[in-house]
Amino acid sequence: MTTKHGLTYPKKSHRKTVIIPKRSSQLAEFFGAMLGDGGINNPWQANITLNALADREYAVHVVRLCVHLFEVFPAIRKRKTREALIHAQNSPTAWLRG
User: Fold this and answer.
1) Which of 21, 32, 50, 64 counts the highest number of beta carbons within 10 A?
2) What long-range pairs does 9-13 form, CB within 8 A, spacing at least 24?
3) Domain extent at residue 82
4) How many CB atoms are located within 10 Å of the residue 46 CB?
């Protein structure tokens, strides 16, 4: 069961309701990816940087985790370097920041 919370963002009318998932192995895996390769830039954006060649399948798996856990559909962007960036906006980062 997930819990939906409405976080208020001043002047950000496009923000969505945040889904806080129950504790699970999938949530633990997501936190591991965030701790190891991720970052939170601001209250509505999270990124995970991976190797575009070696971690291609894992990047798709992390996107599926985000969709399953938070109903957020992140994009995978390939940089000019060999990095791939999983970029989620309107994400539950306000909750992740505590």
Assistant:
1) 50
2) 9/43, 9/44, 12/44
3) 23-97
4) 25
